[in-house]
Structure formats: C-alpha cells, structure tokens
Amino acid sequence: MADRGGLAKLATIIKNERTAGRQVIVAHAGNAISPSLASGFDQGARMMQILGRLGIDVMAFGNHEFDFGASVASGRALEANFPVILANVRGPDGQPLAGLSPTWVYERGGFRIAFIGLVRADLTEVFEPRRRRRAAAARCRCARGRGPAAGRGRHGGGTRRPHRGGGARVDE
Length: 172
Hints:
alpha/beta, 33% helix
C-alpha cells in the first residue's frame, strides 16, 4: 500500500509540477463523486469541492457521476470551478445537461488541445436504480440456473441503441 496515494498525493504532484514551471493540464476522467461512503451523505458535493481545490483543469463525467440521477449530476457540474465536459449525454429537450459542455479547448503558446468527454452508451442502465435491480436479479436467477441472463456486462465495442430515461439520453 505504500506506493498508493490518494487525493493528498495527487495535490502534491500537481503543486510540485506547477511550481517547477511545467505546463501541466490536469484532466480528470470522472467517476469521482460516487461510489464512496461520503457521497451517500452529500451526493458528491464535497468531492467536487475537493477537486476544485486540487487544481483540476477539466473533468469528463463518468457513469458514476450519474449514480444519483441526471439532475444531481447537472447540479454537481454547475458547482464545479472547472469545465465539466460530456458530449454524448443530452437532456430530454435534446440539449446538453446544464453545466456540461461537449468539449474544452486548452490554448497556450500557439498550441490547441481539444478534450471531448464521452460516457459509455449504456449510461441510463447504469444510473437508474430500478434497471440496476432488475438486471442484478436476472443475473442472480441465471447464476442459480433458473433462467436466462437479461443483461450483459461490457465495456466499449459494438453498437447499441441509445437508451432514454432518468432525464438523460446517451447519443452514440
């Protein structure tokens, strides 16, 4: 465990690199506000404050930012003091969720680096507790030999239709 860090170690690394005059972009890949014991109390509010103090330049929301629903995820993005990006999630009106931008561009010294946030296509299955419970129950029945599995685990690859629900839509 001695080689592991955490937020304190990350803060030290960011501070040291910036103090040394290096041009550093700190891009967070998401899944920060949940799951954790603390997020059960404040739905990730404290984590967004901590990330803001770390000096995060940009964050792409992951599927766990939606564990408490699309409206909470949108609220956390609005609270952030750094850009939060996600290009393939839209609200029921077809517009990006409040607080989320599809992209962020870093410009310095004549260079432009574009960041695009993307989340997995089965996002609504992941953050809708009812769907999670149904899928878990189906997998349990299958494991006991009582029926076919209703869901499948996967990361990337293949094509699936966009899911709707929970106040968000994932575009593929």
